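re: ur msg from earlier - yeah i can do the cytidine-5'-triphosphate complex, just paste it... oh wait u already did. ok heres what im feeding in:
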Amino acid sequence: MEIIVSHNNTDFDGLASMIAAKKLFPDAELVYSGKLHRNVREFMSLHKDTFNFRLARDIALKEVTRLILVDTKGISRIGEVREVLKNPEIEVYIYDHHPASADDLKGSLEVIEEVGAATTLLVEIMKKQGLEINSFEATVFALGIYEDTDCLTFTSTTSRDAEAVAYLLSHGAKLPVVSEFIDRPLSEQQKNLLNKLIVASESYDINGVKILITSGEIGEYVGGLALLVHKMVDVSNADVAIAAVLMDDRVHIVGRSHDRVVDVSRILAGFNGGGHAMAASATVRDGNVETIINKIKTLLQEHVRPEVAAENIMSAPVKTVTLDTTIEEAGKILLRYGHTGLPVVDGQKMAGIISRRDIDKAKHHGLGHAPVKGFMSRRVITISGKTTLPEIQHLMIDHNIGRLPVVNNGRIEGIVSRTDVLRSLHGEHYPEKYERIYNITQVSTGNGSDNLKLLMAANLSGPIRDLLGQISYLADRSGYRVFAVGGFVRDLILGVENLDIDLVVEGDGPGFARSLAEFLCGRVRVHNKFGTAMVILHNNFRVDVATARTEYYEYPAALPKVEVSSLKQDLYRRDFTINAMALTLSARNFGKLVDYFGGRRDLEEGIIRVLYNLSFVEDPTRILRAVRFEQRYGFRIETQTLSLIKRAIKAKMLAKLSADRVREELKHILGEASPTGAILRMSELNIWPFILPAANTDQESLSILKKLPFAMEFVSSTGGGLKLNTWVLYLGVLVRETGCRISLIDEKLRMSREEQRKMSELLCLCPEVVKRLSGRKPMKMSEIASAVRELSGEGFAFILAVAGEEVVTERLKNYLARAGHNKLLISGEDIKRLGYQPAPYFKDALDAVRDARLDGAVATREDEIRFVAEFLDGLGVSKIQ
Ligand code: CTP
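and the outut:
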């Protein structure tokens, strides 16, 4: 790999030289060695789509074979990139204009001449080679030379710099852009105006965003208002500054924003202005400054929405350990609280983080008694209480970490976990249940009593309690004993919501179901052969009803005993102790727990225990269920059960499962709130080769799987709460390497037509779309829209998680962010009103307007109508006479 690098704290000469070097070495990667100058950062934030820059830590420095250094040759100026010099074979090329120093690297190719800017040297080479330079590149190169020569005034400037600038101007370099971004001394008039603006400025706080508004009136036109506003932002530390100045007969308005929640271009759109989210301007002829300022204030109030920050979503206080806590102890705490990492504190100060993996490693070496300080990682990414939600999301995705400590003056104030982020994005809908159940005290709220009435009052919703009451009444009337069984009882004790009510009736299950349906004005579906039925209530709520199996009667003669033992036999056929409890619904013992196999104790201890040895042989899907419950609740599969599972897997029991059963189980597993743990556990137990050999669970898959929830959330929230098919997406990631060979997967899963269509979208269409989006050439929004036209929400999420190239994901994210606001303001009716007869070209015309909207070519309804009229005119379509 070849990389192009400039010095840390890159200025415009460094940046321009890098971009110029990329023209000479098109296959090389552009890599930042450290920070960017403030003005360069601002410039890049507007143009980051145009160039694909990468961070040193994101590339495999070991694989670098050629280092192309520009505007520097100092070893100490290239930060982490220095790592590449460890490779004895590395080739170094240098393009620099600085005088020699002791710190210098030696290059196998050196273009080092003392001109005013390094960019000059590269422009000369490009000119000699006859390389094409477009107007934008010429502007960037001119910025480089102007900045390092202070607009050709420094004594270090040579005639070669001036010639290079002349060459760039003849290739379309734009001086207004240069003067907007360059840090240049102000003229006397500008200084006066700046003073006026500072004196007149008023500071506002709108939803936590610091906003500076200023205005002025001066007789003659003074250029560079944008630069002055920019300086005001700098000196005042404001997040946003807006100035309106009357010069001659026009009011010039300029807005600058450093805050991602405030898009100044949207505010100045109120004055028909234009620009970017961070810099925008507008001009109003014959305007009144005061009226304009009032309108700006109103627009700001409407647009500046409060942004969620870490302090709003963090969990506090934080469970921490001290430097001297033993590895053993820390391990126990992690297990108990279900965390994957714990902050380590030294007194009040944050000292590091100890992770599950560090602990396992230490234990593996027999060092359980050692203190955590020797194993913790000291380089911890922390955030402050003010870090915003999008920033937190980025940090989690970029560094692949699930927990960010919130630190203030070195002291840990809280922690933000992936769950906190997801919950704040999903609001109420994010299931809290999988977290809460780690908390063992929750389980004991039943006070050990075998009557769960109290728990029912605390954990069940009103409608469910009412329904159980009605079932109880009917049970007594029919004379049957009726129980709720299985997952419903398990989750009631755990305090987890479960809306799947399974009833077992000692007697005639279908008969009871019919009377329940009648009583509650619902419908019933009966399977007489199995003695089962399903009652569907008016709100689509379903209750499954089964008959307790009578073939297991132990003592057919003794009726009461038979009744009890029949329930016991029914429960004994089930998978795990925690799923084999029953809740009595008959009035006499209403709420009484029936627990023959110690299910409640296993729940309290977090154990998955099978009921009998042949369970996994009889029903191999239980292997997958064991993994699912273990991961969902953070439980542990009991030793004997685990060895039965391993034996059943070795005996290839899973291979006996039908495609339908495998698919249904996979749907359950991959549809869980966070299925990645189960996916890994299945690969650890060697399950995948039997149920889906095409599944790949290597490190790369893992890192993609971890990105998937965020990708889905992004698509869902930009799509206004769009619901995505989670299991298909996880499946797609696992089998992404099979390419378009869907049949390979389908012969194992027999998917529905719709599922097959989705898979083929992910595996066949998405790679094509990625290819179209990864071009280096800048893409217009409408071009992106056309590339993604056939993608569904799942397709977008898939690419966001899978595509490695930042340019692709950025383009997609920008598109998604824009597309949501891209509703057309006109319809076919408006075209009719223009005098055209409805025809298929209406759709073409509306599509064209949509593209124009995306590209920012139209904004208002009038623009759209004008655009359509011109479009149809261009098509030569005639109007109705
Ligand atoms: N069951 C079983 N063996 C299986 C599937 C189910 O013994 N292969 C029993 C368990 O007692 C389970 C009940 O049937 O509790 C209901 O099954 P199901 O609704 O699939 O699962 P739940 O346990 O309710 O779990 P979930 O929360 O995933 O719905």
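cool cool. Residues 828-875 form one domain. ping me if u need the other ligands too
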